[in-house]
Amino acid sequence: MKEKINYYIIYCKYWILTWIKIIPFMIRHGLFDTIRDLRRYPWLLVMLKVNRLLGKFGKGRTLRYQKASSIIVSGIVSGVTEMLGNFFFNSDRMIIHEDMVPPEIFKAMGLVPFMAELNGIMLPMIEPHAMEDYIDMSESSGVPPDICSLPKGTMGMFLKKETPPALAIVASNLPCDAGMCSYALIEKQLKLPTFRLDIPYHFTDERALHYFTDELKRMINWLEEQTPGRMDWDRLREICEERNRMVEYELELWDLVRIRPAPLAGEAVWLTHLWFFNLFPGSKKSTNILKKVVEIGKQNLSEGIPAVKNEKYRALLWNPPLIHFIDLFNWAEKAYGVSLIMDSMSFNRLPFIDTASPDTMLEGLGRNIMYGPMARHTRGPAENYLNDIFYIHKHFDLDMLWVAGHIGCKNTQALNGMLREKCREAGLPLLIIDYDLSDPRIVPREGIIEQINHFMENIMKAERLDL
Amino acid sequence: MNEFPDFFPDLLEDPHNSLIDKALDNGKVPIGYTCSFVPEVLLTVDKLLPVRVFAPGVSGTEVADIYLSNVICSYTRSLLEFAMDGRYDFLKGWVFAASCDHLRRLYDNLNYLLKPEFIHILDVPHRLGKIPLSWYTEELKMFTRAMTSHFNVDYGEEALSDAINRHNEFVSLLESIGEFRKEKYPPISGSEFHTLMIASQAAPRNLLIDKINEFKLSLPEREKKSNYRARLLIVGGQLDDPNYIKVIESTGGLVVADHLCTGSIPGLTPIVIKDDPLTSIADHYLSRTSCPRMMEEFNARVESILKSASEYDVDGVVIEFVKFCDTWGIEAGMLVSAIKDAGIPVISLEREYRLTGEGQLKTRIQAFIESMGK
Question: Does residue B2 lie within any of the structural domains?
Fold first, then answer.
């Protein structure tokens, strides 16, 4: 009973706090305009329900774990309202960019970035079926059904003309062929000047670093020609330095979760990276949230309180999280005592940026892009993908690997055979979850649960804790 | 002479064909490659022999599916299946281009499963320009160093210039045959021409050249192809089975031009020596191909297709691509709109690598030709 009361106290606190952020946005936008734009951009209604994530992540969690998740969700709500504000009030400086092109440089140039794939990632977290209309739109316009549903949904959104007016587009050849090619369609649809960064396949040597740093310089020059944005190197330094502070906290967090049982897990690890490092790197608000999360982890550690009551198994999640079943690990924690300790979208190896000069900053950002999560796994040889998995397995003392086997990700599907054999050699139990990233019609929540049940019962010989 | 010589289609029945055998007897070193971004001219120097790998008559990909999964394009799966069956054991090395996700992962799996003595992957930029050209030239330098070290071959300027000259002579011979296709009633069908194209990638060119010359000389005497309903241009990626075109032509279409990875436009463009031979080769292979993986070149590809449509006086365009190909999958839909906007009838067809669903293909093409009022 006490637990339930505490849950509702935290839930209500953050529910009120998040509405305090959403309502002013609606007032600023005006009632009439909000209603008009809700019709023009139907996804807006889903986005405004972002604080639903408080319940999805918080329910049934231990007190501090719930608090950490709620702080993160509250930070996300701030971010969403900020982005929607830019969407409606600052479109004269708006740049549409691909998700693997980080926004630090745009922000330093005084431009407003809008990540094209954001809706495809965020909306299914809030409402699992939110992307279906956009996916269907893409397919009915001639895009084959086997293309990854993230670019497919993104293209659908542009085809439906539900995206902001912008000055230009910046894309790249990351993370995959489908993602890269989707920008040919987006460019054609929007008829906007488009810039594409070329990231080498062999990206680990000095030659690649020079090549890619030149690409970033070329991008800055191009943006200065095409937009009112001007490069402010001092501003970029501030952003990079703040980003470095975020990284320090993240590394501290990773040290905490190495401990068994982990004082924090789940969203505290993956969502902090996915949201704050990809969308708001180098912002003081992001640093503060990471700091608060780390403090909560330390409190738990000092009092010997694990995040998951019965942490029996520690899991590594590979590939992007299952966004239309975003509370998967909340379920798995209760059902089997499985903690999500690390994931491929968070783990990275070269996080710090040397801010000594413009060149070192561009090199640092260049390294971050090329070696960044997902980027280095989808480029270069298979070793880039496999070596990280087995390093993380040892470093974080993990018991199992769950691969989010998104059917549209051909790049990673083609490594499953090798991965199975390597996992067998390493004695690492492997579950490949068959599903589609953005489209729950392919494999619904129940189908995912069934696959996990089979794995846990037959491979791990585990019993359900919640039945 | 009306019959197309069996000599050419016979070469396509097995990757290890009779001319490969002859070349092996002559001490040639066959190197397999998979993509038009691999400069096959570099595999013609000294004792090397380029072999563009294909999997004719592949009946299933059960083993390859275990590793590559069944959502990867069936061309790459078929190659892995053949490789696992030992059908490429005669090859002394492999050269890949990091051109698309599917071929990159084929490289990974082949390397993991078979551990070839020599395997190399070229990092091909995704755009054109001075800096990407310099990158690709450097890639080719590293590649030639690796080849020299492993196979002890000479990549001196003289050897390269000689290889370029031989390449240009050969492609101009094929091009001169291709010119006949512009005629109102050409003496060669699309499937016959494509057979020559594939044979020239699957067999030693020096052993083919006399036969091709002989065939060329016979062309003016051949019966003209006058019994067709529509002149077609075929567009797409890897197509190494001329029977696919034969099925299209069995419905009354005549394929008079092709924009295929394995085809003649822009495949039969000669290499122009501007700077040093290696830079010229890099420039040629980087800018010549019509693959959608070159991310800034969509408009150029459309222009090139429309230009060919006009030059070859085509009635309609057939776009074909192997299912699960991401680059062509997205490109095809966009090309359909662009070609339609130019007032040319167009159809887009998804297919498997091996020839299946002939009946469906015939029906689609028949309906397409009828929709043109032909």
Answer: no
Give the model confidence (pLDDT) of B144-199 as tens digits.
999 999 999 999 999 999 999 999 999 999 999 999 999 999 999 999 999 999 99
Per-10-residue mean pLDDT for chain A, 467 residues long? 86 91 87 88 93 93 96 95 88 93 95 95 97 97 96 97 93 95 96 97 94 97 97 98 97 97 96 95 97 98 95 97 96 97 91 95 95 89 95 97 96 96 98 97 97 98 93
Are residues B105 and A416, on separate chains, in Cβ contact within 8 Å?
A: no
Residue B234 lies in a domain: yes
Cα Rg of chain A, angstroms = 21
Mark yes or no for CB contact A147/B330 under 8 Å.
yes
Residue B61, C-beta contacts closer than 8 angstroms, at least 6 positions apart: B70, B74, B77, B78, B80, B81
Which residues of chain A have a CB within 8 Å of the CB of B105? 382, 410-411, 414-415
Is residue A466 domain-resident?
no
Q: Which of B163, B31, B30 is nearest to B95 (CA)?
A: B31
Q: Please indicate, yes or no, if residue A268 is contained in any of the structural domains.
A: yes
Report the CATH number at residue B59.
Answer: 3.40.50.11890
Interface test with B, best of A135, A187, A190, A201 (most B CBs within 10 A): A201
Specify the pTM: 0.96
**Segments forming the whole domain that contains residue A156:** 2-458
Number of domains in chain A: 1
CA distances to A190, A315, B82, B286 from B238, in Å: 31, 41, 17, 17
Q: Which chain B residue's Cα is nearest to A405?
A: B69
Same domain, B163 and B308: yes
Q: What's the CA gap between B84 and B78, in Å, rounded? A: 10
Q: How far is CA A466 from CA A6, A7, B115, in A?
A: 21, 19, 48
> Can you give the residue range of the structural domain that contains B134?
7-151
Q: B340 is written with which tokens?
A: 């339609």
Q: What percent of chain B has pLDDT over 70?
A: 100
- The answer to whether the Cβ–Cβ distance between B112 and A207 falls below 8 Å is no
Complex ipTM, two decimals? 0.95
Chain B CB contacts of A196 under 8 Å are: 126-127, 295-296
Other CB atoms within 10 A of residue B275 CB: 11
CATH of the domain at B296: 3.40.50.11900
Helix (H/G/I), strand (E/B), else coil: B316: strand
CB contact under 8 A, B69 and A184: no
Out of B97, B127, B151, pick the residue that ends a domain.
B151
Residues B102 and B180 in one domain: no
Q: Using a CB-CB distance cutoff of 8 angstroms, which residues of chain B are in contact with residue A413?
A: 68-69, 71-72
Same-domain pairing of B103 and B244: no
Tokens of B348: 């887009």
Percent of residues in chain A assigned helix, strand, coil, to nearest 5: 60, 10, 30
Give me the residue from B106, B123, B330 closest to A201, CB to CB: B123
Of B126, B151, B176, the residue at which a domain comes to its end is: B151
| Partner residue opposite A413 with nearest CB, options B69, B329, B332 | B69
Residue A405 forms beta bridges with which residues?
A: A434
Interface test with B, best of A137, A376, A410 (most B CBs within 10 A): A410
* Cβ atoms B217, B193 nearer than 8 A: no
Residue A217 included in any domain: yes
Q: How many CB pairs lie under 8 A apart between chains A and B?
A: 133
A463 found inside a domain: no
In a domain, B64, yes or no: yes
- Number of domains comprising chain B: 2
Q: Of all residues in chain B, what percent are helix, strand and coil, respectively (each to 5)?
A: 50, 10, 35
- B138 & B193 share domain: no
Same domain, B170 and B93: no
Contacts (Cβ under 8 Å, ≥6 apart) of A261: A306, A307, A308, A311, A339
